[in-house]
Amino acid sequence: MRENDDLRVLVRTIRDYPKPGIQFRDVSTLLLDGPAFRKTIDRMIALVDPDSFDFIAGIEARGFIVSAAMSYALEKGKVMLRKPGKLPGQSVSIDYALEYGTDQIEMHTDAIRPGQRVLLVDDLLATGGTAMAGVELLRGQGAVVDTALFIVDLPDLGGSAKLTAVQVEPMALMAFAGD
């Protein structure tokens, strides 16, 4: 039995979504199980040193769920990396490529001060486009980002390697190889 197999079985695979050939790893089925969601957050927290970061940045949308729970448990501030047009204050944005299109995220310009350490959190790491955009956006505002944490990693799609190449350590509770 692999580590976190009790959680892994709760991640649903949706074939050919959002386009043919993609095997979408859907964590919403894991989130439906309250005790499993709690274990997920507890185990993610156990992977990091809370003293190594000042804030947790969550990427909209499912990354908000995970990062908010971690922020609450660790009593850390949460930086929101949002879709365009959702933030009321002055913001900065970045465009990025996804495995099946393009997108954009933004953050408030005053969310962090230069030198503050930020843990980047999202539900899933695939090609790394969204995570890399989060790192660039945060670092562009002066944040120190050296760790990114995910529920699921799809290592064959290269996201882990891209993060490692920019000195960000990717960590995940589980990996689905060959997808």
TrEMBL record:
Catalysed conversion reaction: AMP + diphosphate = 5-phospho-alpha-D-ribose 1-diphosphate + adenine
- What does the record give under GO molecular function? adenine binding; adenine phosphoribosyltransferase activity; AMP binding
Q: Where is the Phosphoribosyltransferase domain?
A: 31-151
Q: Which Pfam families match?
A: Pribosyltran
Q: Which Gene3D superfamilies match?
A: 3.40.50.2020
Recorded hits in CDD domains, A to Z, give: PRTases_typeI (cd06223)
- For this entry, list what GO says about its biological process: adenine salvage; AMP salvage; purine ribonucleoside salvage
Top-level EC class: transferase
Localization per record: Cytoplasm
Which family is this sequence assigned to? Belongs to the purine/pyrimidine phosphoribosyltransferase family.
Record's function text? Catalyzes a salvage reaction resulting in the formation of AMP, that is energically less costly than de novo synthesis.
**UniProt-recorded name of the protein:** Adenine phosphoribosyltransferase
Could you tell me the gene encoding this protein? apt
